[in-house]
Amino acid sequence: EENGLIIPINEWVLRKACADARIWQRDGFPAFRVAVNMSPIQFRKKNVPLQVARILSETGLDPRRLELELTENIVMQDIDAVANDLRELNRLGISIAIDDFGTGYSSLSYIKKLPVQRIKIDQSFVRNMTQDPNDSAIVRAIITLGRSLGLEVVAEGVETQKHLQGLRDVGCEIVQGYLLGRPAPFAEVSRLFGERDPIALTA
Questions:
Q1: CB count in 10 Å sphere of residue 149
Q2: Domain for residue 132, yes or no?
Q3: Which H or E run includes 77?
Q4: In this predicted model, what pLDDT tens digit does every residue of 154-182 receive, in sequence order?
């Protein structure tokens, strides 16, 4: 990020993700969202909505199939400007998620100011929740907070059946992690799309 290379790299990743997802959309695979992490530097350039709209137009991807993930650090660098950008992205049909939720140093008050649809509980809480009652309490509190605000809550870093069961015990309905699947190339994901039923894919 220091030398600015993250900007063209992030743009390439976004374009590639949208192009690949457009193929799945064309081939009639079940409804899905492809999530792409955004860099703080991109939001400092103040042109994120235009950039994303251009890439969606070039690739032909339905905006409802795209989710952009931001960390709390991105949000807090200029909350009013970021909120405006997020509203523009929402108007395009794109959903927004706060990634690594619970690890930033910001006030929770920012959540009510932002047009986000999803919060993703940081994996550090998930991995320790079966041994540490404090982490379990934090996870439960985040789930309650998210639901109270009408947000979808996702638990990250699910690697074992114990993690999964612990999350079920506190009422978490959506999870991600190596227990469900590891990063894979486009061809492998396409094969999995063809083999699995829609219910499995929502995991």
A1: 13
A2: no
A3: helix 72-77
A4: 999 999 999 999 999 999 999 999 998 88
What pTM was computed for the model? 0.88
Residue 107: give the domain boundaries. 1-116
Q: Collapse the DSSP code of 37 into the 3-class scheme (helix H, G, I; strand E, B; otherwise coil) and give the result.
A: strand
CB atoms within 10 A of CB 126: 26
Q: Are 50 and 86 contacting, i.e. CB atoms less than 8 angstroms apart?
A: no
Give long-range contacts, CB 8 A cutoff, 24+ apart: 165-172.
Answer: 166/126, 166/129, 166/130, 166/136, 167/126, 167/129, 167/139, 170/129, 170/136, 170/139, 170/140, 170/143, 171/140, 171/143, 172/121, 172/139, 172/143
Question: b/e per residue, 45-68, with b = 16+ CB within 10 A?
Answer: eeebbebbbebbeebebebebbbb
Lowest-confidence region among 43-57, 72-86, 109-123: 72-86
Number of domains within the chain: 1
CATH number at residue 56: 3.20.20.450
**Residue 85 placed within a domain:** yes
CA 52/CA 46 separation, integer angstroms: 12
Q: What is the largest CA-CA distance in the chain?
A: 48
